[in-house]
Amino acid sequence: MFFSPRRWGASSDYERVPEGPGAQKCNPEKSASFFSRMTYSWFSRIIVLGYKKPLEREDLFELNESDSSYVVCPIFEKQWRKEVLRNQERQKVKASFHKEAHARKPSLVYALWNTFKFVLIQVALFKVFADILSFTSPLIMKQMIIFFEHRPDFGWSGYGYALALFVVVFLQTLILQQYQRFNMLTSAKIKTAVIGLIYKKALLLSNVSRKRFSTGEVINLMSADAQQLMDLTANLNLLWSAPFQILMAVSLLWQELGPAVLAGVAVLVFVIPINALVATRVKKLKKSQTKNKDKQIKLLNEILHGIKILKLYAWEPSYKKKIIEIREQELEVQKLSGYLAVFSMLTLTCIPFLVSLATFGIYFLLDEGNILTATKVFTSMSLFNILRLPLFDLPMVISAVVQTRISLDRLEDFLNTEELHPQNIETNYVGDHAIGFTNASFSWDKTGIPVLENLNIKIPEGALVAVVGQVGSGKSSVLSAILGEMEKLTGVVQRKGSVAYVAQQAWIQNCILQENVLFGSIMQKQFYERVLEACALLPDLEQLPNGDQTEIGERGVNISGGQKHRVSLARAVYSGADIYLLDDPFAAVDVHIGKQLFEKVIGPSGILKNKTRILVTHNLTLLPQMDLIVVMETGRVAHMGTYQELLSKTRNLTNLLQAFSEQEKAHALKRVSVINSRLKDQILEQNDRPSLDQGKQFSMKKEKIPIGGVKFSVILKYLQAFGWLWVWLSLAAYLGQNLVGIGQNLWLSAWVKEAKHMSEFTEWEQIRSNKLNIYGLLGLMQGLFVCSGAYILTRGSLAASRTLHTQLLDNVLHLPLRFFETNPIGQIISRFTKDMFIIDIRFHYYLRTWVNCTLDVIGTVLVIAGALPLFILGVIPLVFLYFTIQRYYVASSRQIRRLAGASRSPIISHFSETLSGVSTIRAFGHEQRFIQQNREVVNENLVCFYNNVISNRWLSVRLEFLGNLMVFFAALLAVLAANSIESAIVGLSISYALNITQSLNFWVRKACEIETNAVSIERVCEYENMDKEAPWIMSKRPPSQWPDKGIVEFINYQARYRDDLGLALQDITFQTHGEEKIGIVGRTGAGKSTLSNCLFRIVERSGGKIIIDGIDISTIGLHDLRGKLNIIPQDPVLFSGTLQMNLDPLDKYSDSELWEVLELCHLKEFVQSLPKKLLHEISEGGENLSVGQRQLVCLARALLRKTKILILDEATASIDFETDNLVQTTIRKEFSDCTILTIAHRLHSIIDSDRVLVLDSGRITEFETPQNLICQKGLFFQMLTEAGITQDSVTK
After folding, report:
1. Distance between CA 1235 and CA 1074 in Å, rounded?
2. Where is each ABC transporter domain found (predicted)?
3. Other Cβ atoms within 10 Å of 243 Cβ, number
4. Which residue from 132, 462, 676, 812 puts its CA 20 to 30 A from 1115's CA?
């Protein structure tokens, strides 16, 4: 009985199964005491562990259940569905009142608010309390200064003020850190929820929507736009908190300075609209930058997927130029943003100064008797310092809101785009037929031209159906219509039962081979082995290093094309579905393998004999065994019936079969029904021998997570790219800025001391005016230093960004093909996106902040120590504790951030993999399982983020507590010296001490930020030290006409893919004649493709040499070699862009030459029928062309760059026999004066070669004319016999 794993396997509801014992590390937060939770002491064990050893994923605490993606995503999706339904109701109401509907989209913001409103309110309450406490400190300081001014006999109140100051700042620390904890985690949960919704939507997109949103654009939505939303949420409370703080500060200033404070308010009112204009400009720049990033990611994604084609055709410089052009547009926008940042920096630094200058100036003008006392000055200055942050934050958060609005628009546009309509097909059909079409017409777009018209097909249950026709006739489209992937225009489509789908281009997951076959179903060992045997995979498992536990790379890069198709077929067979849709599964497999697959799997006696099977095929010899044949012609069913019915009634099929028959005659194809049993045994014995072609025997590399500190050489590399001139100039600018800032405060302090005696001077008004002028001059100097520093930083950071990006791109393009086959593309793209973003935007900011904080801290300690020398005694142990805490924290935090960085790549890789295989996932009905997998990889990143947030809070509580002790110590020393210290000095010392808490905290945090973000520089520079390909151009260059004869000579040639693997080619020695046609054959793993890779130096030699027309190819540059060879590869890779660009990316040829090659490839008529003809837009991966058409476009490329040597790597595997015949004729005619090396599965395509090279286990076993090889009855004869070709038919 046919076993169906679906009965036992994954249903639509997938349970989360924790992985590994370490994954269950319990989170102690909930069971911790109140004090432990407030101070984050429960996290200390991770900090201590991280100091002792590099942290690993298993060491981290798991999320609280309510914070995990498994809980967050379903709740948000439910709210989004409610919002969609509410929006539909609103539109209906508007329509009922005959109002013009503005087609308002469902709001992502409303859905997010309804999901997270309670926790957002909780976060806001924490912020309110923290803000109120921040204004309590200046008021206590005011009372202390009053205490010193009056010098009372009883000093106990002074101690009370010192203690009160300590308690207030400590409470503020605890509440602020709780705010930060909930705020950061809520923002991360919002990002997680949005990513989950994007992923789910990507699985539901219609084909029209998939064309609108490329893979790169969808990935950008998930990474950049979701990140933008997260960043805004983290700062969202500043929208109300900043005005609240400004209002509080102004009201308290009014109490100190009266109406004079209105002058300061006027300055604010004047500056805020300017900041609004800056925000508007930033919005435009952000929009432009987002488009540039989309273009770059899209192009990079295509380049990395098609890297083999770029290398074979030597197109790297052309595509490098395209990337750099986009990058220069990005940097231009970044430069403008940097100049706007100069203004922002000026605002941050100078507004408090301008406000204080205007306020003090008006204060003097209002009443000549007004004098500045220590109480007024230092209370006011403390309030002005508090005012600085909200004044800077408010325009920044307004700008962030504007930028996020763009991201929200993009996200809402994507989330509201068209989905596949369930009504495209009826899946709950319970009638007599498995599949039924009734007057059905289909298009890829509802408004487009019908691709399939008036289909009337009834397929009985258990039938074996063939769909045949020429390239572009609509065969694959019929399968897409059955899957519901096409838009139904008219008619009815019905399908009964579950479906399994084998795509024409096999989709393979980046996981072990066994998981690729099981595809979510449970393991049933006996049936599993039966499936592997039927799909001819058992011999392959013996070759793979770990059998069915071998990890398959992205897109199946470490297995052959034939193996991919057989794994894809095994996956379908194992699923136990009711209906099997098989899109030309024999195209990429050897003839004898194809025969076995039909007999043991698909055919009347195969494992699927009782299932409904729809087979798209070009192999017309299979038609007599079909229950039903559907002949497609230009999107219509030309004929339908059994083989005998069509043969007797239909002239067209007869003509088709006659054409095939003539092809058989021409190429001597005659089917053999009985093969000698002894010969069969020999063939099986050959199959069972392990292959020496170990080039594909590797596993994908996991992302390497560095351990230990970042080397200073990494920082040095950034500074070198920054430019040493800019480095020294920026240091000078920031030193000047801080010295002038200290000078301002000291000048103010001296002024206050003299204010008491001002009335004694006859010209005291003039003196006061001079002091105000000098104070203003110092502020102006500080503004100039700030502007200079920001400008220098912008110029230097642009230089660093340009240099590091160019080096990264250059290094990636020079890496050998083996690197791309063993490293997930997500890892490479992550370096161009996330890591370059950190280098572009964040790293120089952290560096600048750290330098500023360092100078701030040094200045603060010196100022306080100058006023209170004993302060040094208290600072020394506190500094020791600071560095101790920092050392523990940095060791853990650095590694947690590295783990977080490594956990991002799997999200991108899984997303990219899903988008490329979405049709297969939908066909199998496994959307929910993949959604669960997405939640798992996102949750892993969230765990790292959570631990990172808590580690930051752990640090902040401790550092701020030490800072609070410094404040207490400064206040206590001042009280102890009450009788010998001026109130002005007390005010200066305590106001500086209040600032040092934040400065020291920032200093340690930014030092860690620099180290952890320097990992991005480390990752970007990582490829620099890897083994590269040989230079593209070398000093020795071949003549311009080389090769002119086409003589290829291998001399004792040996090659291996890696040093730790055996030889893939051994002692290969042969020579071709000029213009000779050589066929290269051999079983899977014999070394055929390795031979062609060696010609292009994709694989370098281990011994021997290859000589082409007298030149050893190892002595010339790769581009001089590859540019003079020609290849039509096995995989037809196209890039998004115009058809013209795909044919001629270097823009070398005229339109007339392009039309000429299209005619030779039998594509001219098709291209002329397109509205834009040569400018027809090819979608990503060429998905709007059939696989056969893509292969013909690749042929056209080869015809354009006609060279003396042509390699055909199974170039016609994806086209029908009739078109294959025409193509072979074209190749023979157009390349008649060339040397042609043909690697083919279809032996008929090389049977008329001048000579045939037979490879086995990496060695040449035979090299003779086809006739002589047949007479020798060796391996070639065995392969011919197995394929059904006899000696008799060859000689005809």
Report:
1. 6
2. 435-659, 1048-1282
3. 12
4. 812
